[in-house]
Task: structure prediction
Amino acid sequence: MRCLLLSLPLAAMSFAALGGGVARADVRAAIRDQILPGYAALTDASRKLAEQGAQDCTVAAMQPEWNAAFDAWLDVAYLRLGPVEEEGRALAFAFWPDPKAIGRRQLQALKETADRDHITPEAMSQGSIATRGFFGMYHLLYGEMAQDDAFSCALRQAQAEDLAQMAMATEIGWQNGFADQLLNPGAQGKTRYLDEAEARQALYTQLISGLEFNKDQRLGRPLGSFDRPRPERAEMIEAGRSAENLDRSLQSLERFAQALAQGMGPIPNTTAAFARAHELVADLEDPVFAGVASPGERLRVEILQQQIALTVEAVDQELGPLLGVSAGFNAADGD
Result:
């Protein structure tokens, strides 16, 4: 397995070189303070994961770096625009929900054939998105497929290398053009967004979509219905990360909201709504939302879900008018 080439020092590139003087403060702040540093951190963490795999690809050795890289992913996972949407990267990074367990089944089939021609980084990048990225690796690091046989080890190496290359390509895409599209909308050669309003709308929609994903997927899936709760549908149960993923995502979204508000005006109701959501997550003391099957504990999860809905309302009523935008479509719907 070849070592991943060191990432270009993209994060060190001068923000001014991207033309950051045209768009309003909200767009500039979001890109400068959240988006570009977030993707730089993802590139760095993914590279470290690949390097760890090249040195020692056992489950115990790779789990810490995988967790660190997934934390970095959660800081930008709500962004479903630009380079991450190219070549199916968003789903390749994180194929979840996976209600039919496609990824698990396809990885199991790969292990049964033990065909090493299918587990090079190049082959991985051309293969099923369900076997790639963070969730592809997750299946081989937690649960029944978390084994240290030679084939599993090589498969994790290929996944990590593929992941690192995707992260670098996404960061490069932002640095080499897409950030400029948002910072200089309507300028010559910048036709993706026609004016500042469209650029603000695009970023604001990512914020709303990220909150809705947490409400409908990270909480909605395990909640199921009162008559049929589905705790087994929670995200990353084997890793014990279900509530942690939710809270990390909420923290990232709050920082993004604050960046969008920078220079535009205060958003006290939005800040308070996020703070209450964080408190409710901490008060659960239920890392995998197993309590949804118990009426008393289920109510606590439902209250948390309602609080995220209230956070969406606060953002829509407070930040939206400051930016002169509305929620728009949900990018996760593919509309």
